Amino acid sequence: MHAYRTHTCAALDAAAVGETVRLSGWVHRKRDHGGVLFVDLRDHYGITQIVADSDSPALPILEGVRVESVVTIDGTVKARSDATVNPNLATGAIEVFARAATVLSAADELPMPVAGEQEYPEDIRLRYRFLDLRRETLHANIVRRTKVIADMRRRMEAAGFTEYSTPILTASSPEGARDFLVPSRIHPGKFYALPQAPQQYKQLLMVAGFDRYFQIAPCFRDEDPRADRLPGEFYQLDLEMSFVTQEEVWETMEPVIGGIFEAFADGRTVTPTGQFPRIPYDEAMLKYGSDKPDLRNPLIITDVSEHFTTSGFGLFERIVGGGGVVRAIPAPGTADKSRKFFDDMNEWARAEGHAGLGYVTRKGGEFGGPIAKNHGSEGMEALYAALGLGPDDGLFFAAGKPEQAAKLAGAARTRVADQLGLIEQGAFRLCWIVDFPFYEWDENEKKVEFAHNPFSMPQGGMDALNGQDPLTIKAYQYDLVCNGYEIASGSIRNQSPELMVKAFELVGLSKADVEERFGGLYRAFQYGAPPHGGMAAGVDRIVMLICGAQNLREITLFPMNQRAEDLLMGAPSPADNRQLRELHLRSTADAPKPGVVAAG
């Protein structure tokens, strides 16, 4: 017999009744029923119920062992009675009567529970992540993550892509976040950067003639964490294609990404391949107040500024007259809602840093609220008719500068739909956001900056860069969005060295700057570069959506906390003086502050 097990803890069923078996695993739960001890024995695969009574030599051993101790059980498989069958377990039709028990590793008193799914402080969960990972939901999420990634690879290979690995130690690149820098021991005073993305390398692969590249790529960004982005590192399905238009990228990747969601949908609806809506950026910002719209939400924002150019409601009239806008968010079927519902929405908007959220109530065709009173019943009737609203529908208003109004309207759209239970459940709704601005205005620096990927192809090419207001130029750039999350971003690339230089000149960089910062790519484009494009899909966000998790830490093996600390391994940690000397570095962390004289 095997030293530790003849079966896993998910393998035994009624066909095994009468067999002598050996199982090993963790003591998940113990239940003492007056001389009869029931133990749930758990391993990676599942749970088997172990039984020991006064006739079993294993009883005193199992009585004395703590939960989460690792034990080996020798015993006989028995059928459970009809009344005690557990249909929720793969092994629920049987139990194992323990003839002998061996403690392989005794557990100390636990700092946190493993059995059950109760909430527990995050710092404890991360410090004892090896215990946290034993919990059922998190353990299952990690297993599902590996299966999703394996499915990605299969689908990409089936679509004609080949996986290539790109360097981890590289040069700094303008991807929009801080780099993690690695000091060079061999080259004093110089630093490598961990890649924010393999952007330049994958473009160089296209120049090198590899045609279709993909990689499950680790990426590193020194940025603040949030629920949908972990600090430090993340993984993306990175890909690039030669001789393609953006339409071909979409047509190629919809079956891959849509197919992944379908494979793990578990009964949930997925937008059919070939039917992903393609929504221009400007339209998305108008209708949804976001370039990451959740299409499960049926509410549509409308610009109603023209209704308030002349109005008895002076505030809106002044806003519109001053170049601002008024956006309307419907609140259907709110006739039964009290005034408090509308006032609470207004208070929420103020708490979010906005001036407020105007509203109109309507019940049985009767309008209510200060806006309706001042704008007049005739004006309100015209507004409601234009919006297609009914006699029992309310309406919220976001007013101000276009950017501010769009932001408030988008957040209000989400909150109203959530409060009214309008968001479709059990669905993955995917769409492409297209025609992004190539440039944007940096208010802090008072200059034009790239709005997104600086290596994208501007629509109109050199003619647009030479003769068009930079802030009106669109890019062949696109995002893939699912349920309000950006899950992929990509573009058709600029492969012309002259166009590359001109694009960077408009943000204040010279030809010499381009040659210095992006010399490899710039040189490559001078020796025959094919038209190419691609995208990168966030592995972590896709898995989070599939698992129904609310935070990326629930689908990641060993994440950092909100302060970018690894509480389990104690990172980041100080380097000792020998290490610093080898790297030609000196730490200023403990240096005296200016004006302070060191003791001694």
UniProtKB/TrEMBL annotation:
Residue positions binding L-aspartate: 175, 221, 452, 493
Principal cellular location given in the protein's record: cytoplasm
Site (Important for tRNA non-discrimination): 33
Region described as Aspartate: spans on this chain: 199-202
Superkingdom, taxonomy of origin: Bacteria
Listed Pfam families: GAD, tRNA-synt_2, tRNA_anti-codon
UniProt keyword annotation of Ligase present: yes
GO MF terms held by the record: aspartate-tRNA ligase activity; aspartate-tRNA(Asn) ligase activity; ATP binding; nucleic acid binding
CDD domains: AspRS_core, EcAspRS_like_N
Recorded catalytic activity of this chain's protein: tRNA(Asx) + L-aspartate + ATP = L-aspartyl-tRNA(Asx) + AMP + diphosphate
The keyword ATP-binding is annotated on this UniProt entry: yes
Entry GO terms, CC: cytoplasm
Subunit record text: Homodimer.
Family under the similarity heading: Belongs to the class-II aminoacyl-tRNA synthetase family. Type 1 subfamily.
Protein name (database record): Aspartate--tRNA(Asp/Asn) ligase
Lineage: Bacteria, Pseudomonadati, Pseudomonadota, Alphaproteobacteria, Sphingomonadales
Gene: aspS
